[in-house]
Write a structure and sequence with these properties.
The chain has 228 residues and is of the alpha+beta class. It has 5 helices and 9 strands. Strands 1, 2, 3, 4, 5, 6, 7, 8 and 9 form a 9-stranded antiparallel beta sheet that branches. The chain starts with 6 loop residues before the first helix and ends in a 19-residue tail after the last strand.
């Protein structure tokens, strides 16, 4: 067991935790109100996994969180739950995206993110430059279908995604850039992508759903990240 003493050590731990909360270092890309990221879809229309999910409280190794679990249809135990937060299901889609960078409204604790001016405001640019999973709901999915209807593909250009609002008042905008060929780096990464179906199935293995009566603090909606 490794423990540290003193207020100074506590402050250092707080900095590390805050950085991990703000960073896009996990598997999923998430943004807060007024933030944005620039990305490229890595799979076309047949690479989008979608369906209905339940928000289910989970626990493992003294940790607890809520996680999206696919609805199992007619025999789904979550649909039959007496807890309405669990029995309720919502439509979501997942797809792989190459994320170039993300613009934060606040600087990181270490001051590594470059400040940039955009729309008369200062943002802080976090370089990412790797594949991440884009997971969103019904209204965002309509943006995808509109893009596909216009261009006949998702993968011929980069996009900027901007979020406005929080909670039920959240909306997203997608701004297409000019058409351009995919880079060699992204082409190579596409060949190494994990199967999304396998990720979804594997994320729920060896996890224990918490009984409905137990009180669980929901994960932060601003930066949703499931511990895969």
């Amino acid at each position: 067991m490794s423990l540290a003493k003193g207020i100074g050590a506590m402050k250092e731990a707080q900095k590390r935790i805050q950085a991990s909360m703000q960073s896009s270092g996990g598997r999923y890309i998430g943004i807060g109100d007024q933030e944005s990221f620039v990305f490229r879809f890595m799979a076309d229309e047949d690479g989008v996994v979608n369906g209905y999910f339940h928000r289910v409280p989970m626990e493992q190794n003294d940790r607890s969180w809520t996680q999206d679990v696919p609805c199992l249809g007619d025999d789904c135990p979550y649909c039959k739950s007496e807890d309405t937060k669990i029995s309720k299901k919502s439509y979501k889609f997942l797809t792989w995206a190459w994320v170039y960078y993300r613009l934060h409204t606040k600087a990181d604790e270490e001051g590594k993110w470059e400040p940039v001016e955009k729309d008369e405001a200062t943002f802080y640019k976090e370089p990412i430059d790797k594949p991440m999973i884009l997971k969103q709901g019904y209204y965002f999915s309509r943006l995808l279908t509109a893009i596909y209807a216009k261009y006949g593909t998702l993968v011929d250009r980069d996009y900027e995604c901007i979020r406005n609002g929080t909670g039920l008042d959240t909306s997203y905008s997608l701004f297409p850039e000019d058409k351009k060929p995919v880079s060699k780096k992204i082409k190579a990464a596409i060949k190494e992508l994990e199967d999304l179906d396998g990720i979804i199935e594997g994320s729920n293995q060896n996890l224990t759903p918490i009984k409905p009566k137990e009180k669980v603090k929901d994960e932060d909606e601003e930066y949703s990240e499931e511990p895969f």
